[in-house]
Design goal:
The protein has about 220 residues and is an alpha+beta fold. It has helices at about 5-20, 165-170, 200-225, and strands at about 25-30, 40, 45-50, 55-60, 80-85, 95-100, 105-120, 125-130, 140-145, 155-160, 170, 175-185, 190-200.
Amino acid sequence: MNHTQKFLAAAAITFIGVSAASAQTIVAGWDGGGSTPTVVDATKVTAALGTQGVSSFNWSGRSSTDGTWGSVSGPATVNNANAWQVKGDLNQSQLFTITNTSGADLIFDSIHFDYAHIFGAITVNVTYVNGGLGLTDGTSLGSVSTNGSSPSLSDWDDADFTIGSAAFATLANNQSATFRFDITGAGTGGMDNIAISIVPEPSSYALISGCFLMGFVALRRRSRS
């Protein structure tokens, strides 16, 4: 394999890895069971958790410690001591609202969270309630259920629910979207590291492609000299 082929192979691996890592950008997240976002990109959105609907915020001693929002890495999940206590037998629910303040359209990607079986099985349903997205009000984005083998203290399960294609997931500037978690089942579980992500801006991919092209041109010049 010559130098050009080696460069192309290495660049392709790097491009794929960076693109995959950039496939989702966390713009708001709640970590540690608090009602105030611990992560928010103020250049793009404002985020608000609704009036407390779960058993407790800041459930001490129960927390996901894997450092991710669902399965997505991003801004650090800094609180590893607290989470939300959620009770299925009370049919609890929790709302959160995202408002686009970026000055342009935003394409949202997914809802992310960690969950765990602690004192019995629960099911978490995620619903788009209403707002400026192209989805029908009340659209279910998905659900997950715990079981007896689910982790209980640290390495919680991850959930990532896609909001929809660009036609349905685009939120215009100054528009809001509200989502709801519904908890059902006979047990009590935990939720942590709740977040929402957007599709990266085209400029992110342009930067990656530009770096790739510059490296290739430099290698070609070196090969000819």
